[in-house]
UniProtKB/TrEMBL annotation:
Pfam families in the record: SNAP
Cellular-component GO terms for this entry: Golgi apparatus; SNARE complex; vacuolar membrane
Name of this chain's protein: Gamma-soluble NSF attachment protein
Region called Disordered, residue ranges: 274-322
Family assignment from sequence similarity: Belongs to the SNAP family.
Record field: compositional bias (Acidic residues): 310-322
Superkingdom as given in the UniProt entry: Eukaryota
Keyword annotations: ER-Golgi transport, Golgi apparatus, Membrane, Protein transport, TPR repeat, Transport
GO molecular function: soluble NSF attachment protein activity; syntaxin binding
Length: 322
């Protein structure tokens, strides 16, 4: 079988690597370069044969040899490959540790682009099982790209982190992350994205029950080109007004509009779940007051009509029946 042939080929590469590592009276230092190459080839063969545990071990040995040889970029690549083999073995925590190690090696040895994309991958890997750790990795990626003066990329990492925090219900930290994203979006002169972040900030503040902060986030956006003429501005104004008036029915109605409905799913869900303070009784009281006012007006109108009718009757029979 093809898999068996690839395993056998991998075992031959392991033997070659072991020879490179041996020392003798005439060979005082191990051939780390040759060993790293042979271990990498062995790992690739085992990976092809889907013998993931053997591949993991081979890639780890390749990484160690590259570290000894002070070839850190290739050491990072080998650690990353070992991490991916751990993923195939469903050992996600170990996979994350190894890929993180690769990311740090890339960053420390002058390849920040590769480092940032590595932290992005490991964050995505952990999103379903350890979202808090994934947030940390996204923020590391943001820090790397910020140092490289790429604000739009840095903002994208912050955006991913904030979305996860909202999913976890950690609105306080989400607000802080969104503020940093907004700063990067402004630096990147990305007005549409600044408007989007403003909506997300307002939603998070309202979810925290902080109307004052939500209103301030909304008004701070007035300086964004095109914001005051946008749907974002109009819909947020109505949302804040409904919240301020404690009108749950109106709040839910505004939150169900297309602008909120077609946001990223985590924020759309957040908008749908907003609760007006005071149990949303403000709208009901207002309606009741209007109803009472209408009844009172009706009663007053009826009384006036009765008086007019009574006056006409009195005039008709004022001179008696004769």
């Amino acid at each position: 079988m093809a898999a068996d042939r690839r395993v056998a080929e991998g075992l031959e590469h392991l033997k070659e690597a072991e020879k490179c590592m041996k020392t003798s009276f005439f060979k005082w230092k191990a051939d780390y370069d040759g060993a790293a190459s042979a271990y990498t080839k062995a790992g690739t063969c085992f990976k092809s044969a889907k013998s993931y545990d053997q591949a993991r071990q081979a890639f780890l040995k390749a990484a160690e040899c590259n570290v000894q040889n002070n070839v850190m970029f290739h050491a990072g690549k080998a650690y990353e490959q070992a991490g991916m083999m751990c993923k195939e073995l469903n050992d996600l925590n170990r996979a994350a540790q190894l890929i993180e190690k690769a990311g740090h090696l890339y960053r420390e040895h002058g390849v920040p682009d590769t480092a940032a994309s590595t932290f992005d991958r490991v964050a995505k890997l952990l999103e379903p099982t350890n979202p808090q750790k994934a947030v940390d990795y996204y923020l590391i990626g943001s820090d790397i790209t910020e140092c490289e003066d790429r604000p739009r990329q840095a903002a994208d990492f912050q955006k991913k982190a904030a979305k996860l925090l909202v999913r976890m219900g950690n609105y306080d930290r989400a607000v802080e992350v969104l503020k940093v994203e907004k700063k990067f979006q402004i630096e990147g002169e990305n007005a549409p994205e600044v408007s989007r972040v403003t909506v997300e900030l307002v939603l998070c503040h309202l979810a925290r029950g902080d109307f004052v902060a939500a209103d301030k986030a909304y008004k701070d956006a007035y300086g964004i080109p095109g914001f005051t003429e946008s749907d974002h501005c109009r819909e947020l104004a109505e949302l804040l007004d409904a919240y301020d008036e404690n009108d749950q029915d109106r709040l839910s109605s505004v939150a169900a509009r297309p602008m909120f409905k077609f946001m990223d799913n985590d924020y759309a869900k957040l908008a749908r779940g907003l609760q007006a303070p005071g149990g949303g009784e403000g709208g009901k009281k207002k309606k009741a007051a209007l109803l009472d006012e209408g009844i009172e007006e009706g009663m007053e109108k009826g009384q006036l009509e009765n008086q007019e009718v009574g006056g006409e009757d009195e005039d008709e029979f004022e001179g008696g029946l004769c």
